[in-house]
Design brief:
The chain is an alpha/beta fold. It has nine helices and 13 strands. The protein is 25% helix and 21% strand.
Length: 272
């Protein structure tokens, strides 16, 4: 454990401090704020790409600046948002698919600060929109970068997020109405969750399962992840701006009691 901490601290310029004694949280904060931050989150709004079964977001202005003075002395801006939990870049808790497992409010804070692993398959996805991440490709990543650390957030980079916010481009349907976009494979997911013991995974598309499967309402892969009592993040952005290894990720979201999902704010802290 001490060696693992030393490697992680070294990535962010803290190894010398660790050698002289464990750094304070203030020391760590000062150093981290000097690193490069990358927002992995799409801004959400009415009309963004979403699963076909969900209604569009509705947004209303409840109060506006020039409505006159009130109890607070001045007018103010406040909105009412109406949308499903799975909206924009969002968290899918286990209870989204599996009755009785963890809801959004039951995900502990320790699962929101994680080592970030990015498996870059954007070139493969550009050649084949039906590309799926195989176990062999995951092991190739490990050959190049080392074993995926336990507790990691593993994100699949396909650059599909560059199609945002064009819903038709994201769905990429053929003449028969079948979607063609990349996804995971069961073998890769089982290896990551059961052998590498990762905390969570994420992707840039609207589904864990590839478009061909999702077009048939086949959610076998998403069901697998959530059934293991892990959460996932969908519709990530800007994975092309983070390294394949060496970054940290912060995954945050509100805390609706018994919540089935919610928009998330996800960002990476990257070495310079």
């Amino acid at each position: 454990m001490r060696a693992a901490k030393f490697v992680l601290l070294g990535l962010f310029g803290l190894a010398g401090t660790w050698a002289a004694g464990e750094p304070s949280l203030l020391d760590i904060q000062k150093i981290l704020t000097q690193k490069r931050f990358v927002d992995l989150t799409h801004a959400f709004a009415p009309g963004i790409p979403h699963w076909h079964g969900f209604p569009d977001e509705k947004r209303e202005t409840a109060y506006w600046y020039d409505k006159g003075k009130g109890a607070l002395g001045e007018g103010f801006f406040a909105e009412t948002f109406t949308h499903v939990g799975q909206w924009g870049t969002h968290v899918d808790p286990p209870a989204h698919f599996i009755r009785g497992l963890r809801t959004v409010d039951q995900i502990p804070l320790q699962e929101m600060l994680l080592p970030l692993v990015v498996i870059d398959v954007h070139a493969e996805a550009a050649k084949d929109p039906d590309y799926t991440l195989s176990l062999e490709r995951v092991k190739k990543w490990e050959t190049e970068h080392g074993a995926i650390p336990a507790g990691a957030f593993v994100a699949m980079r396909t650059d599909w997020s560059k199609r945002w916010p064009d819903g038709a481009a994201m769905e990429n349907k053929d003449a028969a109405g079948v979607s063609h976009y990349p996804g995971w494979t069961m073998a890769a997911l089982k290896y990551l969750y059961e052998e590498r013991k990762i905390t969570t995974s994420g992707h840039e598309t609207t589904d864990t399962d590839p478009g061909i499967a999702a077009s048939k309402d086949d959610a076998t892969l998403e069901t697998y992840i959530l059934s293991t009592n892990h959460y996932q993040i969908e519709l990530l952005a800007n994975l092309d701006q983070v390294p394949e290894t060496g970054a940290l990720v912060i995954v945050s979201f509100p805390k609706p009691k018994g919540g089935s999902g919610f928009p998330a704010r996800v960002f990476a802290i990257c070495p310079q």
